[in-house]
Amino acid sequence: MGGDSSTGPARAKLRVLVIDDEALIGKAIARTLTAYAIASETRGSGAIERLARGERFDVILLDLLMPDLSGMEVYAEVEKRWPELVRGVVVMTAAPVRPELKSFLDRIPNLWLRKPFSSKELEAAVETASTR
């Protein structure tokens, strides 16, 4: 991944939490975002536990459809308990945008990515979310 030297060190310090029930997605994102410190959770409840222990992230990549807690439930919990982290959430979904998902996506001010997305789209979303 290229980039000028003025942004390289700043990006290297950014912490990104990937919350996706498909472990391979988390691994693929980690391979793409090599300039960032990546942590992954395959369960929404695991991500909430990490945040409750005091771990903090600059960007949270959040899958919408997961079995234990949906992305919408995780987002609501983060919004309620750690509102300062909400601005860094980027929502990801491969699902067709059904009415309840569309309503959620229309309500939130956050970026969202439709899977599959390109590495350029991912990097741009992380950069944008990290500066909000």
Compact description:
46% of the residues lie in helices and 18% in strands.
Question: Could you describe the 3D structure shown?
Answer:
The chain has helices at 8-13, 23-32, 44-52, 71-81, 83-86, 99-107, 119-130; strands spanning 15-19, 37-41, 59-63, 89-93, 111-114. By secondary structure, it is α/β, with parallel strands linked by helices. It has a single domain, classed as Response regulator (Rossmann fold). Strands 2-1-3-4-5 form a five-stranded parallel sheet, sandwiched between helices. Strand 1 (15-19), helix 2 (23-32) and strand 2 form a beta-alpha-beta unit. Helix 3 (44-52) runs parallel beside helix 4. The longest helix has 12 residues, at 119-130. The model is unreliable at 1-8 (pLDDT under 50).
- Number of helices, where a helix is a run of at least 4 consecutive DSSP H or I residues: 7
The overall strand count is: 5
Class of secondary structure makeup: alpha/beta
Strand content: 15-25%
Radius of gyration: 14 Å
Reading the helices and strands in chain order gives HEHEHEHHEHEH
Mean pLDDT: 91
- Which stretches are low in confidence, meaning pLDDT under 50 for 5 or more residues running? 1-8
Q: Any idea what the shape is?
A: globular
Q: How many structural domains can be distinguished in the coordinates?
A: 1
Q: Identify the CATH homologous superfamily.
A: Response regulator
The proportion of residues forming helix, as a percent range, comes to 40-55%
CATH architecture assignment name: 3-Layer(aba) Sandwich
At CATH level 3, the topology is: Rossmann fold
Order of strands, main sheet, comes to 2-1-3-4-5
Distance between the termini: 22 Å
Main beta-sheet annotation: 5 strands, parallel
What is the CATH class name? Alpha Beta
